[in-house]
Fold each of these.
Amino acid sequence: MIIIMRPEIRADGPEVEDIVSFLSHFPEIKVKIVESEGEIRPVTEIHLIGPTHNIPAEPIKSMDGVEMVVRVSSKYRQIGRHDIHLHPVGFTYQDILFDQDSLQIFAGLCAVDTREHVEQVFQCLQELGIKTARMGAYKPRTSPYDFQGHGAKCLPYVFELAGKYGVKIIAMEVLKENHIDEIRQALEQTGHPTGVMLQIGTRNAQNFELLKAVGSQHEFPVLYKRGMGLTLEESLNACEYIASEGNRHIVFCLRGVKSQLGLPHRNLIDFGHVPVVKRLTRLPVCVDPTHSAGVKDRSPEGILDIFHAAAQGVIAGANMILVECHPDPKTALCDGPQALTLDELKEFIEDVAIVREAYEKRRALRQKYSKGEEDL
Ligand code: PEP
Ligand code: MN
């Protein structure tokens, strides 16, 4: 059961205190107070975990400050929309908003290789007005003989350079719990010049201990990438692991699924699931056109498949894009063949803006028609 408080009610206010004291009559229930931000309004919720069927909803509904009481289904208790009753909620990190209405672009290196390349990418992002980047320091590779990433030793210069060029958040994959500590230490050592969004890669999509580790810390938000061989339901349950540990600052990323049916793309592009994830959950949704398309091929009009893939996500309302670029893709130590050059990145950003405008027009069109439907 979730008790949603009215917008003006604060988590430490007397109304919440009254409800918590009423709930103390049900000692078998665990009570959790959750505060989130949204574009429309802040949300304070009281989550009840345990045998809530014994708890009567009516007296709670009539208590001061309560807007709504929702009995949640067992699926996606924390992240779910529960038949659209619950508002989508978002979060702000480093002054940047993540919710189901906004759109952020995270661009950068698949794997950090040299300091010079990191600097060139950040400089380019600054010129393009982008404050969000991706940088891989820990790389999970199919072959043990491939480059595994520079790990903790590159973090200080990556963070310092981010600060120098106004990059506020870097999406960075972690493969084990200790990587979170290394990131925390490097941020401390460099004076927190930037922020980090912890990325759970597709290969760790059901690494439940790692999911619990990113879920039980509150410092960093989490970018969860769908498992390449998992159903949507399995991946959403994995996100629920993160949320159930206490961290609801999660972005769900579609990155394609492994299938010969996607050929000649690296994965079968699954961006048709953008509206599905937005409907089932309250999470912002990211698309990764780089790892899903995975090739630098162009359609007859000259547009890269990576651009087309991103467009499919954005036209359907995606809230974040994760895209790889490299100043000199030929020399990249990981995923060079799918990296955009910095010139291509500039074009990409302009292309995304066109598609986003079309998405906004689609929303306005729907609003116009839905008003007509209400009048009937
Ligand atoms: C990545 O984004 O760096 C990556 C390895 O992607 P994925 O986990 O989706 O393969
Ligand atoms: Mn990559």
Amino acid sequence: MTVKTALITGVTGQDGAYLLEFLLDKGYRVFGLKRRSSLFNTGRIDHLFSMERDEESAFNYAYCDMTDTSNLIRLVNDIQPDEIYNLAAMSHVRVSFDMPEYTANSDALGTLRLLEAIRILGLKDKTRFYQASSSEMYGNTIISPQNERTPFYPRSPYGVAKLYAYWITVNYREAYSIHASNGILFNHESPVRGETFVTRKITRALAGIALNLQHTLYLGNLDASRDWGHARDYVKAMWLMLQQDQPDDYVIATGITTKVREFAIKAFKVAGISLDFRGKGINEEGYISAIDKDIFSSLTGISPDHLKVGQTVIKIDPFYFRPTEIDLLVGDSTKAREKLGWKPEYSLDEMIKEMVISDINLMKKEYYLNKGGFNTIRQVEDIF
Ligand code: NAP
Ligand code: F7E
């Protein structure tokens, strides 16, 4: 059996880590592209590195940046991949308002650079291409749920950049017959989700509050609704798209939407803490309305004596509001379910439980001092 070679851009990110694991399990040789960083940035994939790394290893990596054309062309030429998964991106919507030009360069033009590499190097009949498109492209649409025929109306520099990447992928498919597909993925999370996305920010802050390392979680728009799935389910859909005879575009979503406020309530509940909300607008706050001591202690290993019923644990900080927001996203993945045979395995509650347990364990490892208990000097409140 011939071994397939895959190239993953953004291999150090959340999806890159799950996809790498998935493809190695399937027997692929994988080349991951990572950018140079002054600190280690391979924490999510360290367990997949082999000490005896050489040209025959299942997993190798190379340095790249999506803004560096010659580097990308050279790597595609050297690797001659059967499949390219383009996951690298400046992926934070709020940050894209601060760095719109860089976001366009890496997310929009970066995609063009890879497609050009396939075309220029004459790889159109060999190399299949997956583009990490996003539900952010739907933005302000009034149609709900969103499917492959829903018109786009992006609401951020990130969404606009991803829309260019979406259309250039469609264009190269039609103009040059490249096997290029867009996965229009709705929000997907996991225990290794970036710490500044709202789900992980909540589960991480909950761990800090439960372990008496943090007192308050500051959030932005509690009313935003998102269709949250699990990254492990979603990387399987990416692979399925590239196994089809014909390239195409697919929405990947659970079909269930949940408000940020509700996500927080569910997360705290896993630790036995009931949350309620009082006040309005920027004065709204989340407070503890009850504590189940047995659930709390069995999860954290400590008693909840430092927490009080009535105590405020969530406040609004307008800093986290976006100049233009998307109020509601919910996806209709009927096409993927029928044509790819894909469906999500994880429920939202299962995913939240996994994230909460993981963050409590991580924070215990990170902060527990053998002699004196938890280190309350080092605060973790200043997470972006
Ligand atoms: P992520 O955790 O933020 O990972 C992004 C990856 O891209 C990281 O490996 C990052 O490197 C790398 N990267 C960023 N800028 C780069 C550049 N200029 N050159 C090279 N590499 C660069 O994102 P994710 O959640 O895994 O998402 C994967 C892809 O799917 C992204 O394109 C994202 O926009 C898209 N997407 C995500 C979701 C979602 O809900 N997760 C939904 C729809 C679409 P570092 O590790 O060094 O930062
Ligand atoms: O925000 C609201 C925020 O940053 C979700 C990326 O993976 O998914 C992600 O983009 C919602 C928004 O994700 C805070 O205003 C409230 O309405 O977790 P997020 P996102 O913007 O939906 C899409 C599909 C992608 O493609 C992106 O790459 O939560 N929210 N308070 C907050 N968001 C953050 N980050 N922080 C807050 O404090």
